[in-house]
Specification:
The chain contains 6 helices and 15 strands. The protein has 295 residues and is of the alpha+beta class.
């Protein structure tokens, strides 16, 4: 609780402190002690602050230090690394950068979270980033790389095309009782949903739409899924609960094409044509015209 005594952390409520600062681990890593390392490393920073109660200023000072000794690489660990392993490597991909920054920020009483897209909706790969709680909103930044206030999550692709987010999830320490693994523990689930420690925060980042996929006769299962096209294949990024008339999907990103699928024994099975959720939130079914041949 020492971190709660810092001037930039005293305004935090107990719920905010216990959720965004106090947890002793961030993923499924082997737990080790990490707070004392950063508290000792950054004890002098308060003397460098113009506004000693500003969490954003402290966040920037810490991030500026992290940039000098932790570097981006395409390392892809087979398991969740802990603090000692990250400290030894001093390099990692976006997930490792974000994890290290969260250790550092939380050790100093900053309410920082780890957010990410499981898959981009219009380009290959995924992405992770940090966000810091300021008042009642989260300000995104990229730990070890880009400070809050100037970081743009969507970035820019060649031709000034923005990367699209279909779903955004937040890594949590507490269990999400509304996650599919908690609701349907005996169901075969995609890897993305084989954990209950996440929160859907899509609506806090982008315009969203909720809709229902009608059931077809003979379909079984309690969960349906939406996939986006990424890295030359369809990748599951969302799940929907089965109701009387169909699978209900909540807070889905707009201006994105999705494929509704089922998942069973490690395989996806399409259950309808692709759908476009347009910029206004209207759901359009993309049906092929079998009477027109194009070469």
């Amino acid at each position: 609780f020492k971190a709660w005594e810092y001037p930039w952390a005293r305004h935090l409520s107990f719920d905010e402190f216990s959720t965004y600062v106090l947890p002793y681990k961030l993923k499924d890593e082997q737990p080790v002690e990490w707070r004392s390392y950063f508290q000792q490393r950054y004890s002098h920073l308060i003397d460098d602050m113009e506004n000693k109660s500003s969490p954003v200023e402290m966040c920037k000072l810490i991030n500026q230090d992290l940039k000098t000794w932790f570097y981006f690489s395409k390392i892809a660990p087979k398991y969740d690394l802990n603090f000692n392993e990250l400290l030894q490597l001093r390099a990692g991909g976006c997930p490792e950068e974000v994890q290290l920054a969260t250790y550092a920020m939380r050790a100093m009483g900053l309410p920082v979270v780890m957010d990410g897209v499981p898959m981009w909706a219009n380009r290959n790969s995924r992405h992770d980033w940090n966000a810091i709680l300021i008042g009642n909103q989260f300000i995104p930044f990229l730990g070890t790389e880009i400070d809050p206030g100037i970081y743009k999550v969507e970035g820019a692709l060649p031709g000034n095309i923005k990367a699209k987010r279909a779903k955004v999830y937040r890594r949590c320490f507490s269990i999400n009782s509304e996650s599919p693994i908690e609701l349907y523990p005996d169901t075969d689930l995609p890897d993305l949903f084989n954990t209950s420690k996440y929160l859907d925060v899509t609506a806090s980042y982008i315009p969203v739409q909720s809709f229902q996929i009608p059931l077809r006769k003979g379909l079984s299962g309690q969960t349906g899924y939406l996939a986006v096209f990424n890295n030359q294949d369809w990748r599951i990024i969302d799940w929907g609960r089965r109701g009387k008339n169909g699978f209900a999907f909540k807070d889905v990103g707009r201006d994105v094409v999705y494929l509704p699928v089922l998942y069973d024994e490690g395989e996806m099975h399409p259950i309808g044509h692709p759908i476009l959720v347009n910029k206004l939130g209207k759901v359009e079914i993309i049906q092929p015209d079998y009477h027109v041949n194009k070469r």
